[in-house]
Design a protein that fits this description.
There is one protein chain. With about 300 residues, this protein is of the alpha+beta class. The protein folds into three domains: about 35 residues; about 180 residues, Immunoglobulin-like (Sandwich), CATH 2.60.40; about 70 residues, no CATH class. Helix content is about 30%, strand content about 25%. Strands 2, 3, 5, 7, 8, 10, 11, 12 and 13 form a nine-stranded mixed sheet that branches. Strands 1-4-9-6 form a four-stranded antiparallel sheet, with no helix packed on it. Strand 11 and strand 12 form a beta hairpin. Helix 4 packs antiparallel against helix 6. The longest helix is centred in the N-terminal third of the chain and has 32 residues. The radius of gyration is 24 Å and the shape is elongated.
Length: about 300
């Protein structure tokens, strides 16, 4: 009986400790989620589209392989005192070029102390196929003062993502870089106890993911149409992957244009979206027809 009571007590104690640990872990996660981080946005332009789930699709023939983009800081608590950011492409066929401060294009920087593009220290980092910048206010006693109501009212910098000539079709990523001497960090000051804390947001900063193809979105067989044939090709590829993780048999260009909703998968949802679009486009006799991307975005 004593052993049974002791066992119950031990289980209860373990449960209490687990609950306490879980609560602390949740608190830590919540605290970490409010730390400053970075994110990217691409501008829609000829041949460049922002897909429903956030990926960028670029038709390299129409866009001439150039994607205008910007990088932002998300700092809900407005505690950033210094910003050291490096961002890079994971493939040398995609270069980061024409990096500048945001004033000429957006009218201001995120911080009041930086009033011109010349105030933003930007350097090309060929060793990592990327770029670096630094925002550092003179005062070390307080955070930098935001220009707008939020830290991301204006971007930190603008740049172009440019494909090399004859770059292969497929998926490319641009992300915050934090390896070796090329670190990215935000010095937060002050915290509740008045001490500065440096955080390293590379892991919590989402990448800019680009699906690049030498054809329009959804045109898997590159015949200039988006129709049932393309839907069928996607279903065949999906069936191969679902059956035994078999190679779906798609080229990089086909793979990039087949992910029509931009969720990173090629599946029955993409095939269904194309079939629905084909039926919709076939029924339009007058007026403007939505693009495939805008049609998908309009669907629930």
């Amino acid at each position: 009986m004593k052993k049974f009571i002791s066992l119950i007590s031990s289980v209860a104690l373990a449960a209490t400790m687990t609950a306490a640990f879980s609560a602390n872990a949740a608190d830590d996660a919540s605290e970490k989620s409010s730390d400053p981080s970075f994110y990217f946005k691409a501008d829609e332009a000829e041949g460049t589209e922002v897909l429903k789930f956030g990926r960028i699709f670029v038709n390299t023939k129409k866009s001439e392989g150039k994607i205008p983009a910007a990088v932002y800081i998300k700092d809900e608590k407005k505690v950033a005192g210094q910003v050291f950011l490096k961002w890079a492409s994971d493939n040398k066929d995609l270069k980061i070029k024409n990096a500048t401060g945001p004033v000429a294009k957006y009218g201001a920087t995120p911080y009041k102390s930086f009033t011109s593009d010349d105030d933003v220290a930007i350097v090309v980092l060929d060793a990592i196929n990327g770029v670096g910048l630094n925002y550092s206010d003179i005062s070390s006693a307080a955070p930098m003062e935001c220009t707008g109501e939020t830290s991301d009212a204006y971007p930190l910098a603008c740049f172009d993502a440019v494909f090399e000539k004859n770059a292969a079709g497929g998926t490319y990523n641009i992300g915050v870089y934090d390896q070796g001497a090329y670190f990215s960090s935000v010095v937060c000051r002050p915290t509740g106890d008045g001490k500065s804390v440096e955080v390293f947001p590379a892991e919590t900063s989402p990448k800019l993911t680009i699906n690049a193809a030498n054809r329009m979105l959804g045109d898997v067989n590159d015949d200039g149409l988006v129709d049932a044939v393309d839907s069928s090709l996607i279903m065949k590829a999906y069936a191969k992957m679902s059956a035994s993780d078999e190679d779906p048999g798609l080229t990089g260009d086909q793979t990039a244009c087949a992910d029509v909703n931009g969720d990173g998968n090629i599946d029955a949802v993409d095939a269904s979206n194309i079939l629905a679009y084909y039926a919709y486009a076939s029924s339009i006799t007058e007026g403007d027809t939505l693009s495939l991307n805008n049609f998908i975005k309009s669907r629930k």
